[in-house]
Write a structure and sequence with these properties.
This protein is of the alpha/beta class and 372 residues long. The chain folds into three domains: 225 residues, Aspartate Aminotransferase, domain 2 (3-Layer(aba) Sandwich), CATH 3.40.640; 62 residues; 73 residues, no CATH class. The strands form two sheets. It has an eight-stranded mixed beta sheet. Strands 6-7-8 form a three-stranded antiparallel beta sheet. A hairpin with a 5-residue loop joins β6 and β7. α3 packs across α10, α13 crosses α14 and α14 runs antiparallel to α16. Bound molecules: flavin-adenine dinucleotide (FAD).
């Protein structure tokens, strides 16, 4: 019954994607895969199918790279923060597994780490980080020689620290103990968050406990307003979820893989042949159906640019795309929520609103996005 419902949902949400729209949204690509880390233990703490970590581990073990730039969750003064490190062992790569939905300082932290590192490196980052790195590579040939592979995580947007601070404070109250560890998302489909506390308690909640606010763009990073890069145009390989309902019943959650460059393809093939990764081919429409709301919304900077002055933001329009009434309304809701979460006077109200009300608000936003 559930399988049938998923198939119906899938059919209703499936869209037709023209060549030019695919080019605009996804950029150039050579190969597409639906993949997962073959070893079960490499998927336990993964955001999706554990492909990001499996790929890095196999490249390290095959001697293709000497290190990998990864992003760790640290607990600092009981607050959840994300920092970059260069992992040189399998254990270090696994310790940094999973998505960190909180702001980072790529240029300030990661670039110096890469420059100081003595060896070849694979870099994982959000699309904005990877395009910043690519710009630096043009100016700095030593840096370019060192970076062997650029992996972008498909990205809707990222959140400021205030959001995770509020969520972790609520969890701390529930556990009545200081926070010891935090994982944003693990497990099948949308997954669960997991917080560990000093008194030994572990709290798990549906990821929506956090993502309800995130998806409504409360406490979004400002730079995300001007970004139209959902899939990581400048990467050698992009990794993301494939949220098409037809894959919901798969017993193993998988990662959608977009291979863009020759270098990406060569390194992917050496990991695949080594057996670390299990993969089947995927169609670009599967990837886009899985991002059917988020990707067109993300690309449409023009809509955000139009409504930005209403909220005192400046958003330069780099894409000059058509703004339909529903794209305009979605942008209005998005920027209104961002502004609301910036208001010292009113932002406490956000967390006092009943969740069912916020859920209805989110469904309205998603409904409008589906019209695109
Ligand atoms: C802020 C954010 C937003 C995202 N939005 C979407 C989306 O809208 N749609 C979608 O399909 N996918 C999105 N993703 C990507 C998705 O969550 C997974 O990261 C991706 O599918 C790879 O999963 P995996 O299991 O293969 O990788 P894993 O094995 O979990 O490895 C992930 C690697 O990424 C690194 N990493 C994690 N977070 C960050 C970060 N913030 N900055 C730099 N490196 C990091 C980790 O250290 C690890 O090395 C997002 C990820 C992030 C961090």
């Amino acid at each position: 019954m559930r399988k049938m419902l998923n198939q119906v949902a899938d059919k209703l949400l499936r869209k037709s994607w023209t060549e030019s729209r695919i080019n605009r949204l996804v950029g150039e690509y050579r190969e597409l895969y639906h993949a997962y880390a073959s070893e079960d233990s490499l998927r336990v703490n993964a955001a999706s199918g554990g492909v990001g970590s499996a790929l890095l581990i196999s490249l390290l073990e095959q001697g293709e790279i000497d290190g990998a730039l990864v992003c760790n969750t640290d607990i600092e003064n009981e607050k959840v923060r994300a920092h970059f490190t260069i992992a040189t062992t399998k254990q270090e790569i696994l310790a940094a597994q999973g998505s960190k939905y909180v702001e980072t300082a790529f240029i300030r932290e990661a670039l110096p780490l890469i420059r100081q590192f003595n060896g070849r490196i694979a870099v994982v980052g959000l699309p904005c980080d990877i395009s910043n790195l690519s710009r630096w590579e043009v100016k700095d040939h030593d840096l370019a020689d060192k970076v062997k592979l650029k992996i972008a995580l498909v990205c809707g947007h990222n959140s400021r620290t205030e959001l995770i601070d509020e969520i972790s404070q609520q969890l701390r109250k529930e556990a009545a103990s200081p926070l010891r560890s935090y994982q944003f998302r693990k497990g099948h489909w949308r997954g669960e968050l997991e917080a560990g506390f000093q008194n030994g308690t572990t709290i798990r909640k549906p990821f929506s406990y956090f993502s309800l606010y995130q998806n409504l763009f409360f406490y979004s990073e400002k730079k995300c307003l001007v970004c139209h890069d959902h899939f990581g145009y400048q990467a050698d390989i992009s990794l993301g979820d494939v949220w098409a309902y037809r894959f919901k019943q798969d017993p193993i959650k998988k990662t959608g893989v977009i291979i863009r460059t020759r270098q990406g393809s060569d390194l992917w093939q050496s990991s695949y042949r080594g057996g670390t990764i299990t993969a089947t081919s995927l169609d670009i429409c599967d990837i886009l159906d899985g991002q059917a709301r988020a990707a067109p919304f993300h690309y449409n900077v023009s809509a955000r640019s139009r409504v930005a002055p209403l909220f005192g933001y400046k958003v330069p329009d780099k894409v000059k795309t058509r703004v339909s009434w529903h794209a305009w309304l979605t942008a209005l809701i998005t920027l209104f929520n961002m502004r609301w979460s910036e208001s010292v006077q009113w932002n406490r109200l956000i967390f006092r609103l009943p969740r069912p009300l916020l859920k209805a608000y989110l469904y309205l936003k998603k409904g409008l996005e589906s019209l695109s």
